[in-house]
Each structure stands twice: as C-alpha cells, then as structure tokens.
Amino acid sequence: MNRTRCDRTPAWSQLQTAFESTGRAFDVRSAFAADPARFEAFSQAAPHVFADLSKNRIDTATEALLLDLAQQTGLAAHRDAMFAGEAINNTEQRAVMHWLLRTPPLDPAMPAQSVHRHMAETLHEVHTTRDAMLVFAEKVRADDAITDVVNIGIGGSDLGPQMAVLALDEFVLPGKRFHFVSNVDGHELNAVLRKIKPENTLFLVASKTFTTIETMTNALSAKTWFEARGGTDIARHFAALTSNVAAAKAFGISTTFGFWDWVGGRYSVWSAIGLPLAIAIGAQGFKEFLAGAHAMDEHFRSAPLAHNLPVRLGLLDVWYRNFHGFSSRSVAPYHSALKRYPAYLQQLEMESNGKRVDATGAALPYGTSPVIWGEPGTNGQHAYFQMLHQGSDVVPVEFVAVKTPRHDLPGHHTLLLANVLAQAQALLLGKVDAGGHKHFTGNRPSTFLLLDELSPASLGALIALQEHRVFVSGAVWGINSFDQWGVELGKVLAKDVEARLISGNPQGLDGSTAGLLARLAPGLQPCPHPQTPSPGSASA
C-alpha cells in the first residue's frame, strides 16, 4: 500500500504557514470570546466517552488543514487496511488485528459486516479460545480454595491486565486478591510471596514465546518457592498464557491459553493476557469490556474523519508535536482506580510511536511520540502541577473524569470534580500578578475526557480510543507503530554483561561499564535460567 509521509504533502507546508501566521500566538481565551459556540465545535461524544477539545490551541481552519493532512497521507486507507487484515506491520510482515479480539461472532443473516469474510475462520478461533479462557476463569472464581492470583509477565503482559484490574476494583470478586509481578528485581516477587500460601495461589505465567527472560526467571523462582513449601500440584496451581505449549508443558504446566502473532504485547489485554481481568470481573464483565472497545472500533472505522474522535485527537497530537514543539503530554486521571492508566499509556504510545525512521527505514526530519507521563488527581496537584501552571515549558494536559462514583461517601466526588474542572480552568485562564511569583500565564492547553461511569464497557472504550489515536498519529508520521526493535539491543547486551558480572571479566568493555562492573561484580551469583530468550523476539 502506498503511503505519503506527512512532510511531503501540500497540507504540511500549509500548516507551517498557518502556524506562523496564527498558530504560534493563538490564545484560547480570545477564541472563546470571539466564538460563543466554540465548546460545541470542539467537543463530541463517542461510545462511552465525551471529549472536550475546546481548551486546545486550535481553530476550525487549522483542524480543516489537519484533516487535509490526514487525507493526503492516506490515513483512511491505512485504517481500512488494518481492518482488512493486511500486513501493515511491514518490518515483521504481520497483520495488526487486536481489534478482532473484541469483534462479535459473524451473523450469517448479516452479510454486510465490518469483518471481512476471509477472516471468519480466524474470528472463530478467537471466540473458541476466549470461550475456553472464560470457562477457566469462572472455574477459578468458583474455587474458594484459590484466594490469590499472581500474574507473572512484563510489558504488555503486565501493564494492561494490571491497569484494568485496578481500574475495575469495584467489580472484582470478593475473596480474591490479585498480584502482579513484572520486574526481574527479586524484591518485587519476594514481597508477593510473603503474602501468599502455595495451597491458595494460582500463578499465571504470561509470555507469548515462554522465553521472556524476566518473566521466566520470576516463574522459575515462583515454582521453586511453591515446591519448597510443600506444593505438589503444578498443574493445578500454574497456568500459562502463551503460544509455546511445548515449553509450558516442559515447565509442568498443562493449562495454556494462546494467542496469535498479530497480537502485539501492548495490544494484548483483549486476548488470553486478559485472564487476570476475566477472573477478577467474571466472564460477563470481560465481555462487556470487549463490547465497549468494539463500539469504539466501529466509531473509528466508520465515523467521518471530521467527527471521528481518535482522528481528532491523533491530529491534535501531530499539531502539538511538530508545529508547537510540545514534546510531552501529562495524563491526569481524576479517579484513583486509574492509577496505572498513565503507565499503560506510556507503553502504548511511546513503544508504538517512539521511532526515528519511517516505515521504509528512512530517517525522519521531525519528532514523533511525545513523552507521556502523569499521576492521578488530586495527588498530581500537590506534586508536579506547579510546572504545568508556571513552568517554562508548555505541557498539554489530558484530564480524565468520571461523572458517577461507585462509593457513597458524602461530598468526596463533588470535591474531586470541582478540582478537575478548576485545574483545567486555571490552565486556560491564568492569573495576572505584577510581582511575578503569583503570575499564571494561562493559555495552557488541555483536553477533557469524561466517562459517565468507570465500568468494564467504558474502560474498554477508553483504551480502544487511545489505541486508535496512536494509530492515527503514527500513520500521519509514516512510521510503523507496531514493531518495537528498540527494546532489543539492551536485552542482547544484558546476556553478555550478566556473564561478565559472574566472571568479573571487563575486557573489551567501554570504560564506564568496565568501571561499574568492577564495583558490582564481587559476590554475585548466577541466575538459573529456565529458557534461553529468542534473539529478535520483541514481544513480552
């Protein structure tokens, strides 16, 4: 499929002209004063999510040019190619079909459906695997002897399910505790092992290849701990989320749930990797989670670009990154259960779009992914919001708020909502102070995403919205958003350094690494690795 890179389109130069003439000095306060209908023009509803973009440094003329840019770069065709199952991950020659994981079964009575008929067999496999996983999840939920579920994974095999289980804590089955171990630092696993008993624990080992070094090291240590404390039934207390059934069987695991090479790690929470969530909220809750995401898929697939929320957000990201030069975005969810949401988005966006070359391998002359960071409100207000309001760098902020709480503590939610509205207002309006120290420049951009409630369906829609938004900016930039070769070099070098830490041999190392190795090496013990990682395998 032919793609035109953004900087090679007429719209790109037109946007540069527009930025110099009006964009650089654009003041959102003046825009509101000049246009009483600005809120209506720059807000819209999408499935389960209402978005207010009106506090951003953008006007209708600029958005029209950005839509021209989307058209000229072939965004719609690239989107359609993804939904058609084409191998748009060109460096690995893979399709990108995480959206298929949340697609309902084909209805024979409805020939005109969004899923292409040639994918019917794959969709059937998806549902067969999911049904088996959900049967297992319900079995675990009904087993009162299992009080603790420990998910051992890393990257997408950890961030997605951990974020979702925490976010939907109000829906979690009482009597079950969920733990997530990702870091190869033994302190993390040890802290979990101190809280559990072998006879009451189910370990889930999440690794597509069953060779991810951090995951398999933690899994082996968990197995050793389990057996040392009298555990004998590995088959009952361990399950694997993997495509390498043979390796799992060699480990002693007989219950496995697989997924496909067209499921990237950071897009895998909808697959068997979501088993911890399915156990936590049940089969019906997990189906609602998938349904919310599917509704957003259909919006992205079919809504006109001018009224397509992932498109509008992704184009705004391009406008800020490449024209205003804003190099980061702060994510501030005003719901404590979304505490891992910013970390989840870090991987989703920065691993997807943190690229310096385009899809053909040519170096890019412009920036791509911004740095994504943040904390839940109101905590962030007493930590880093000082910089957002008065710092020398302008950082766009993305607020997430929930209309209806799931607690009945009087006054708390009113105060929370007052704070999120006030912070967005303060960033916009600012405050004049002749002395300087109390002066707020204002005109600091923010986006406001509002959910009616935090539920499985709305969380699914919110995550899918962010997935498609990342797709949009990556497509415009002309990059492959679905590989992650940048994680490989450090993994390869770590194997050599590990051996040197044991032998103490610094020969051939750079001066800094050699000096640090000399200080660290004495007394270190080798780690017993159950598997040898596959070079070049970037999936967790």
List the helices and strands and how they pair.
Elements: H1 10-23, H2 28-34, H3 38-41, E1 43-46, E2 49-52, H4 60-72, H5 75-83, H6 120-142, E3 148-152, H7 156-167, E4 177-181, H8 186-193, E5 201-206, H9 213-228, H10 234-237, E6 238-241, H11 245-251, E7 256-257, H12 275-302, H13 309-324, E8 328-334, H14 341-353, E9 371-373, H15 385-390, E10 397-404, H16 412-429, E11 446-453, H17 456-477, H18 488-503, H19 511-520
Parallel strand pairs: 3-4, 3-5, 5-6, 6-7, 8-9, 8-10, 10-11
Antiparallel strand pairs: 1-2, 2-11
Helix pairs in contact: 1-4, 4-13, 6-12, 7-12, 7-14, 12-17, 13-17, 14-17
Strand content: 5-15%
Shape: globular
- The largest sheet has its strands arranged as 1-2-11-10-8-9
User: Strand-and-helix sequence, N→C?
Assistant: HHHEEHHHEHEHEHHEHEHHEHEHEHEHHH
